[in-house]
Hints:
Layout: H1 7-16, H2 19-24, E1 30-32, E2 35-38, E3 50-53, E4 58-61, E5 67-68, H3 70-78, H4 82-93, H5 106-126, H6 128-136, H7 141-146, E6 150-152, H8 155-165, H9 169-174, E7 178-180, E8 186-188, E9 193-199, E10 205-211, E11 221-223, H10 239-249, E12 251-255, H11 258-266, E13 272-274, H12 282-291, E14 294-297, H13 303-318, E15 322-325, H14 334-351, E16 354-355, H15 356-367, H16 373-387, H17 393-407, H18 411-424, H19 440-453, H20 455-464, H21 473-483, H22 491-494, H23 501-511, H24 522-555, H25 558-576
Parallel strand pairs: 12-13, 12-14, 14-15
Antiparallel strand pairs: 1-2, 2-3, 3-4, 4-5, 6-9, 7-8, 9-10, 10-11, 15-16
Helix pairs in contact: 1-4, 3-4, 11-14, 19-20, 19-21, 19-24, 20-24, 21-23, 24-25
The structure holds zinc ion.
Amino acid sequence: MAGFISQETIDYISQQADIVEIISEYLPLTRSGRNYKALCPFHEEKTPSFIVSPEKQIFHCFGCGVGGNVFTFVMKWERISFPEAVKVVAQKLGISISLEEEKEGKQDFYRINAEIADFFHQQLKKNKVAQSYLSKRGINSSTIEKFKLGWAPPSNIFLDFCKRRGFSEENLEKLGLLKRSSQGEWYPYFKERIMFPIFSISNRVIAFGARVIDDRSLPKYLNSPQSPLFDKGKNLYGLNLARDEIRKSGEVILVEGYTDVITLYQEGITNVVASLGTSLTLAQAHLLKRYAKKVFIAYDEDSAGKIATIRGINLLLENELQVEVISLPEGKDPAEFVGKNGREAFLKEKNKALSYIDYRIKTERQKSKAFTLDKKLEIVNSLFSTLKKVKSRYLLDEHLKKISETLGLNEESLRSEFIRFCKEKGNFSFSVLGFKTLQEEEIEKKLLQVIICDEEALQLAKKSISPADFTHPLCRRAAEEIFSHEGKITPSVFLNRIKDDKICSLISSLSFVDSSFEGVNLQEAAREIIRTLKRRLHQRRIEQLTRMIKSYEKQGKEEKLKELYEQIVELKKNILI
Length: 577
Ligand SMILES: [Zn+2]
């Protein structure tokens, strides 16, 4: 290939890649809080200072200062150019940059899955029983096409097909499509079931979900096992179709099952994905965060669904996503509800979605009849561990107020109880203090850090300070890049545009929010830092003017002196604000 890859493709590939997964192919990473760490491969060290952030999709070595996104890592490790690194990453993901580039390996697996999905789909068209099952559940033919639903026929038909197509049994076994009995006979993993192909985000069949139609056979639902193409904790059903709408609206509806996704989609609610039967995983939360700001959880109302909802809330909050819970009347699941009541009724329920605080209070309340003070305190304690994950201080205030109102508890006491709770858990540090003692360069870095992490803080900075106000040359150049960016900064994607190694490393290091910002409102922090920077800027200007005054005094230029004094008075006023 000539070496030109469009920016769009580069961004797309970096969004598909999971930096933790890719770096893990090169060196062992160990989990450390919300990040991963390792001994740095780019300099000699005995204790790990090489950190990888799954949330931000970047890495940084705090020992030697190397950092960047997934492409930077592959470039440095393999000692290859940027376009070559993009190609290497694309290949690992099974994304073809051009058709000629397609290599064997995963391609074989993708081809088998695609052909088998087609086969199941054709089988469905021949099977009246399966068709009538789907139509009874309200699934129409265009939805069947859209989701490429299928039917797994009895064993011999499936085995014949595979033989005719010449698929090797070993490959089929690796894909979880065949199993071998203790007598050594091959038999299909799926038979006489409705088949739901599971697509990757790039629209390739990576696995299958399946459901029986008689409600007597067990298990009712069956998913492909782990395979070279499929890790169910890392995929979301329906994301390939929902992605654009999620990105556009910033919202995603998270449901439990395939039929929930399909039924909502059919009703024109297209920003919906399912967590594939299990409760949400960290990898899935990261995946959601790439596209959405707000998640509406609409799990089933049974006890397993409730536990999964609470776990989901905590995981999503921890990953700085907004969460609300759609709680459908009479404990119906979304497919059932929307099938019976239609789109508008569902959207109405979505508008009534409960904040996670209200949801928690409601479920705790349902658990016990007597609502004693003891019970209330028990609820408060279980809410505190969720609240601890809230990053914004304003939001926290709002929640504490709400809890005090709903439970009839004194707000001030509640607040001090919460602070005590956090201190006991050892992660409480509203310490934005101490900026005043920092060197210029450090303060400027702090500001860059805050505005990379928080879009509103960036807007605030753009309004009140300019890159030229930065004194440190590297910070000034980084500020120019950051200020000229429109909208929210996603470090891993933003870095694709930065060609300067030093700025790239600076931005990757700053993208790791340091612990002094933990629990701090980033806009407040930005305001305070900007005030400090401006104060120093004014201070420097005053010193400069004072020097000028001295020289004008010697020359006796009265007019000029008066003007300068006025300027100084004005600057001093500003410093006091
Ligand atoms: Zn290093």
